[in-house]
Predict the structure.
Amino acid sequence: MVVGRALWFGNLVVGVSDLDAAAEQFRSVGLDVLDGGRHVQFGTANRVIPFGRSYLELLAVVDRAVAETTWFGRSLLAHLARREGLVRWSLRSHRLDAVAASLGLAIERRSRTTPGGRLLQWRAAGLELSLEHAWLPFFVEWPDGDFPGGQPATHEVAVGDIAWMALTPGDGDRLARWLCGAVVPLRHVPGEPGLTACGIGLDGGRELVVSSGPDHRLAVEVR
């Protein structure tokens, strides 16, 4: 069995309809947003907000024709048809083989090219299940030098890490098994299974809350 300290928050994926507009929401509260690049094979593109040990990923469909032919793209399109906001989350590990074996998951190799032409590569497990059940994490293993959370960022405010994430599990026992003993700051809330919101620590005891607003659009609020 994998010990919990082998796993920690990797990233939270925020599905958005317009990457530029979403990036401006975060920049307006003092966060630096980096152009991540395109997933050509899925018809999607992303922007990255690094926090050091973790990061937020803004994800949008940029080629609908391609997205409609892939399970990854179709999942995002289906989510955005309902609302913008958190769509899935990951746990990072340097022991992905052990994690995957403990849960009976296959490992796949993934990659994307940055706007500067650099090829980033990582390994992942459980992604397809996380697309079906957003309350389940998927698992990633990054080379330290390629990890998006570690990219240099010039935030205008002092930023901590992901402080908490609110979700509604479809099966609490299954989620507990998936965590493999990892200590993750989850808040279980009532409602339909899925992800609800997250909080990121800021200076002065403040926090940035990311959620889906009453109009089903992305909400970014400093509290």
The chain has a mean pLDDT of 93. The first helix runs from residue 19 to 27. The first strand starts at residue 8 and ends at 15. Residues 43 and 64 are 6 Å apart (CA to CA).
